[in-house]
Amino acid sequence: PYVLWRLQNFYSCVGLVIEECTGLLASPIMTIGHEGFGRLLFTTGRLVVLSKTLRDVHRFGFETLGKLAATGTKMVDDAIEVIETYPDVARAS
């Protein structure tokens, strides 16, 4: 449960930063099986802005705060790039 809590917190923060930068609601959808494998999606409007395969979630963590920040920033930048490429789909309801 603690690892899932950390995962949810990290990806919730990524979603909040996407929302802050774009003004669009970024909804995370995360499914994880009992073996620690799953998928994470972020949607904005009708657009999937980020898709990530999760593996070995029981090992989720970062060696330093810098690596945590770099990973989160890259995810946010990738999502913003997709939103800027398909703005009409991102704003569709």
Structural class: alpha+beta
Q: How many strands in all?
A: 3
Please state the CA-atom Rg, rounded to the nearest Å. Answer: 13 Å
Strand content: 15-25%
CATH T-level fold name: Putative cytoplasmic protein
N/C terminus separation = 34 Å
Overall structural domain count:
1
Mean pLDDT: 94
Question: Which architecture name does CATH use?
Answer: Orthogonal Bundle
Largest sheet: 3 strands, antiparallel
List key phrases describing it.
single chain, about 90 residues, alpha+beta, Putative cytoplasmic protein, three-stranded antiparallel sheet, 3 helices, globular
Structural features, described:
By secondary structure, the protein is an alpha+beta fold. The protein has one domain (2-91): Putative cytoplasmic protein, CATH 1.10.3100. It has helices at 2-22, 65-85, 87-91; strands spanning 27-32, 38-44, 47-54. The longest helix has 21 residues, at 2-22. The model has no long low-confidence stretch (mean pLDDT 94).
